[in-house]
Amino acid sequence: MIGMRIKGLGKAVPKRTVSNDELSQLVDTSDEWITSRTGIRSRHIATTETTTTLAIEAAREAVVTSELSKEAIDLVIVATVSPDTMMPSTACKVAEALGIEKATCFDVTAACSGFVYATQLADSLIKTGIAHNALVIGAEVLSKVVDWKDRGTCVLFADGAGAVVYEGTEDNKIYHIVTGSRPDGAEQITLETAGFDHTFYEREEVKPAIKMDGKGVYSFATTTVPRSIEEVLSVASYSADDVDWYILHQANSRIMDRVASHLKISKEKFFKNLDEHGNTSAASIPMALYDLSPKLKAGDKLIASGFGAGLTWGTMLFEW
Ligand code: ACO
Questions:
Q1: Which of 30, 91, 188, 298 lies 20 to 30 Å (CA to CA) from residue 170?
Q2: Cα 41 to ligand 1 centroid, rounded to whole Å
């Protein structure tokens, strides 16, 4: 195989939705603040669903729509920062639930860039002949790692999963992917792992919760994302206008508008579904691709770009 293309898509969200007004009963915030600063109006929050069940549901739909047999899938990667277990990986649990046997399965942690990182790995393994068809999933239940008393974060993060089946092909539709990191920004978004009852090691019990320097991340995103988009465009000899749709990580509507204005292209080309979904970290790009897909025509060119904790970024140029 010399490349891969998208063959199937899936999406899953918890049933329960939580509006901005409902959040304003929990913390000192308002629909006006959240909508004007972020563009988020509502989000799905898990009540019984888990990262694993959402990943399985999205993956099952992607495999069915791909029309590939489960035997044909030999690689499963889940991008997540909110796995239910570190062992086994979420990818192994998805493979088990779907009856995918003998696939290489692992999880990737690159926060909101995770889906693009996972796609880059699938692309490399398919192009080198190690894998043939890949199931790549972004899945999060961030509501379990949010401090529901911190209005700076709890109004932003939410739950969901998106899945893509990539088929190895003779014609390459995933043109170019760049990923990177800026570890000097490591403290700008953090989520510690849960504390353990150490017998020997002295360590305070940690209750995991996302902490974020919103302004710092905003400034990182609005400078790094346009640069990485320009890098992918230049490798493929495309102009920003040649791209039909931009799918940015759904963190903040204002970030997307700033990137559009930097690239001097219409804001209308930036697909947004964060008004209904909030920031679902690694799940946001495949969920947005799923929601955009009814509007896509064969041959459309797309850019997807994730950015987040690490600090990390990942941008890909591909054809529908
Ligand atoms: N409701 C009401 N007021 C609030 C809220 C809230 N929910 N949250 C903060 N405020 C207040 C602050 O306390 C502050 O008040 P003060 O001026 O009295 O001190 C004021 O609003 C302004 O706060 P800022 O943090 O400066 O608000 P800002 O305009 O920067 O918006 C936001 C904050 C939305 C978080 C923005 O900075 C942002 O989107 N940053 C990027 C986040 C991002 O992209 N993350 C992606 C990666 S996520 C990942 O990797 C898991």
A1: 91
A2: 15
Q: Please choose from 23, 218, 284 the residue to mutate so as to test ligand 1's pocket, defined by most ligand atoms within 8 A of CB.
A: 218
DSSP 47: S
| 5-25: pLDDT as tens digits | 999 999 999 999 999 999 999
Q: Taking the alpha carbons of 99, 100, 104, 110 in that order, is the dihedral positive or negative?
A: negative
pLDDT in tens, 216-236: 999 999 999 999 999 999 999
Q: 249, 307 in Cβ contact below 8 A?
A: yes
Between CA 93 and CA 60 the distance in angstroms is: 12
Strands (E), 13-100: 17-19, 42-44, 75-79
Would the CB of 23 count as within 6 Å of ligand 1?
Answer: no
- 290 is written with which tokens? 């799923």
Q: Which atom of ligand 1 is nearest to the CA of 217?
A: 41
DSSP helix/strand/coil, 141: strand
Residue identifier of the C-alpha nearest atom 50 of ligand 1: 308
Q: Terminus-to-terminus CA distance in the chain, angstroms?
A: 18
Decide whether any atom of ligand 1 lies within 6 Å of the 253 Cβ: no
